[in-house]
Amino acid sequence: MAFGTKAGCDPKTLLDIVSSSAGQSWMLDDRAPRMMQTDPVPTSTVDIFIKDLGLVVQSARDSGAPVPLAAAAYQMMVGAGGMGLGRSDDSAVIRAYEALTGCRVTETEAEISATKDANT
């Protein structure tokens, strides 16, 4: 989401495209809408993902199995935790990507209010 937004795509349009193509997944359908919110109600936290992914990465290391995607996800979750987002919904990991890319994906409160006003 951050990469596509940085490349000039509207985040909502990008989500619509990916959701209706080969990139569609249950996780995307479940997490992406919350990624767009400024403060979603936590359903699972960044701290839980840090714990679980840490166990996966350690188990893989112990058995000699490479898990590069899990390791990368773990590092991004650790980054989000380091930003003070540990108790936030796990979708808040988008904020770590926003920090790295310098590109905002989440809506501001003003944008949310403007959308609500336009729809009423």
UniProtKB/TrEMBL annotation:
Top-level enzyme category: oxidoreductase
Protein name: 3-hydroxyisobutyrate dehydrogenase
Taxonomic lineage from the root: Bacteria, Pseudomonadati, Pseudomonadota, Alphaproteobacteria, Rhodobacterales
Residues of the 3-hydroxyisobutyrate dehydrogenase-like NAD-binding domain: 1-97
Gene3D superfamilies xrefs: N-(1-d-carboxylethyl)-l-norvaline Dehydrogenase, domain 2 (1.10.1040.10)
Entries under PANTHER family matching the protein: 3-HYDROXYISOBUTYRATE DEHYDROGENASE-LIKE 1, MITOCHONDRIAL-RELATED
Entry's EC annotation: 1.1.1.31
Record bears the keyword Zinc: no
Keywords: Oxidoreductase
GO molecular function annotation: 3-hydroxyisobutyrate dehydrogenase activity; NAD binding
Species, as recorded: Planktomarina temperata RCA23
Domain of life: Bacteria
